[in-house]
Write a structure and sequence with these properties.
The complex is a heterodimer. The longest helix of chain A has 13 residues. Chain A contains nine helices and 13 strands. By secondary structure, chain A is α/β, with parallel strands linked by helices. Chain A is globular. Helices cover about 30% and strands about 25% of the residues of chain A. Chain B contains eight helices and 14 strands. In chain B, the strands form three sheets. A ten-stranded mixed beta sheet of chain B has the order 4-3-2-1-5-10-11-12-13-14, sandwiched between helices. A two-stranded antiparallel ribbon of chain B has the order 6-7. In chain B, helix 1 crosses helix 2 and helix 2 packs across helix 8. The chains are: A alpha/beta, B alpha/beta. Chains A and B meet through helix 4 and helix 5 of A and helix 3, helix 4, strand 9, helix 5 and helix 6 of B.
């Protein structure tokens, strides 16, 4: 059964140094407040997993929380590069960052295998690309029925997955809708999970196309209104495009970034903005 | 016909023009998305737009600012998960056209969006693969839209993120890649198409006012030129009006 906690409690209880941590969200519903709480609590040596590491991963990497990144596309969507990510890869600042690099299809299938309790997934991709030579978790496999050459990728089973959703009830059942990315798979693949929600309600009214994660499939739920900002939560908030634009400038320079981090993350007491 | 337009506008209009009415198009953000949405407003109102964040049949009334912009989900025929987009819609060959951008492209249409320089010690770390490798492998055809200069148009890409024609004729067939590969590369200077025999990208059209020397100068290899090189039609006033309205819509 999911326990209702504050964000600070949930991160303290669920996220440990050295963990493999996935904060998923595909432009929509990115758990930014939770990522910043991980920074505030000073976690180190994390293996960060995410299909589309964007601003919050730039912040985690720049703050020195990450040892390794497993990903398929790292950028500031619609704006340009992630400068803290680039600085870590190109100049090992503030620490070297090991990378394990996939395509979206590869990452999505790794989560599907993880959620399915299988050791690996199969897809028809990657052949002819240089990714195959750089990434140990991409291997050729032969179909036992047709003989076709395919690609195998191992399951991802994070120690903890964090997502943001629209709402939960007091029993800890979670409801999430809109562009859902790979969040359901990431939660079901994980050993522990934290869902931050816009609001906790007495009863979950049905929403067409919504997914419910039952309380027994989730470890902790924390109410964090605006916890996806600057990304958005459909029917609750709009994407803050100005923030994404502004991040380009803030993140270019190490000093400016460090100052930003101190003022906007480290010095702020708990929870969302 | 209008004579006051930018080379980016020329490129976007030319790219939109290559999209057929009714085609199912897997769209990347940026220039591909702009061109595809322009095509929907001009000659291809029933173009089906699929975005990797999960929108199937998106009909945005303004340009999405990111791949998961709210306007995509809200206007789509269906919203599905990311595993579904890649496994059910792209992989089995349901996509007619994959529409990609590039940081580097080489003379066999291979695309790099991963690193400039050595992988372990890169000069520039780029965003990475995203959905592109599987789009390049499995879409029936691929269109590429990219600004042409020597930094982007290199003889051989530093890293093959997405396969074009590999090292030339027969490469895709040997690997069993299901799609046909890049059929057109649309740039701000002209259009390149693979030679039917060698698969080397060959200049088949230049945009109005662009000289052959200019295109060669902007290409990092000895550029092949089609014997029947044509000049692209300049954008019409109607096309430019539609493009500018699209870019201004918020």
């Amino acid at each position: 059964m999911a326990e209702l906690m504050t964000l600070a409690e949930a991160v303290r209880n669920l996220v440990r140094d050295g963990d493999t941590v996935a904060l998923e969200g595909f432009t929509h519903l990115i758990p930014v407040a939770a990522g910043q709480e991980i920074i505030r609590q000073g976690r180190r040596d994390l293996t960060l997993v995410r299909m589309t590491p964007d601003i919050v991963y730039d912040q985690l990497i720049g703050a020195g929380c990450a040892r390794k990144l497993i990903f398929s596309w790292g950028g500031n969507p619609g704006v340009g590069s992630l400068h803290r990510f680039r600085d870590a890869v190109e100049h090992a600042w503030p620490a070297p960052l090991e990378i394990e690099e996939h395509s979206h299809a590869g990452m999505a299938n790794r989560y599907v295998a993880g959620a399915s309790g299988l050791p690996f997934a199969v897809l028809r991709g990657y052949v002819g690309t240089d990714l195959v030579d750089q990434t140990d978790t991409i291997k050729p496999i032969t179909c036992p029925f047709t003989g076709e050459k395919l690609t195998a990728v191992p399951a991802i089973n994070p120690d903890v997955t964090v997502i943001h959703a629209q709402r939960a009830d007091r029993a800890g059942n979670v409801q999430v809708w809109g562009l859902l990315g790979v969040q359901k798979e990431a939660v079901l693949a994980a050993k522990r999970s934290l869902v931050t929600v816009e609001e906790i309600v007495d009863e979950l009214a049905p929403v067409p196309g919504a997914i419910t994660l039952p309380t027994w499939a989730v470890t902790a739920v924390a109410e964090v209104p605006g916890g996806a900002h600057p990304s958005y939560a459909q029917d609750y908030s709009e994407r803050d495009n100005d923030y994404y634009q502004a991040w380009d400038e803030i993140s270019r320079d190490r000093e400016r970034f460090t100052q930003w981090l101190e003022q906007n993350v480290l010095d702020t007491a708990g929870s969302a903005r | 016909m209008s004579d006051s337009y930018t080379s980016d506008e020329m490129m976007t209009v030319a790219a939109a023009g290559t999209l057929r009415e009714g085609a199912v198009c897997f769209v990347g953000i940026g220039l591909p998305s702009t061109a595809a949405n322009l095509a929907r407003r001009l000659h291809a109102p029933n173009l089906v737009l699929i975005y990797e964040a999960g929108a199937v049949g998106a009909k945005p009334d303004r340009l999405p600012l990111s791949i998961g912009d709210g306007v995509l989900g809200e206007t789509a025929d269906a919203v599905v998960s990311v595993p579904e987009i890649f496994n059910y819609w792209l992989q089995p060959g349901r996509i007619d056209v994959g529409f990609l951008g590039a940081a580097q492209i080489d003379k066999f249409g291979n695309i790099n969006t991963t690193v400039v320089g050595d992988y372990a010690d890169p000069k520039v770390r780029l965003p990475g693969a995203g959905g592109a490798p599987e789009i390049a492998a499995s879409a029936k055809e691929v269109l590429v839209i990219v600004r042409q200069n020597r930094r982007a148009f290199v003889e051989k890409v530093d890293f093959v993120t997405s396969v074009g024609y590999g090292d030339g004729a027969g490469f895709r067939e040997r690997l069993g890649l299901p799609g046909k590969g890049p059929v057109k590369v649309i740039t701000d200077l002209g259009i390149l198409e693979p030679d039917p025999e060698t698969r080397e990208l060959t200049l088949t059209a230049v945009h109005p006012g662009v000289t052959l020397d200019q295109v060669k100068e902007a290409t990092g290899w000895d550029l092949a030129v089609a014997p029947d090189l044509v000049t692209t039609e300049a954008p019409t006033d109607e096309q430019l009006r539609a493009l500018r309205a699209l870019k201004e819509a918020r």
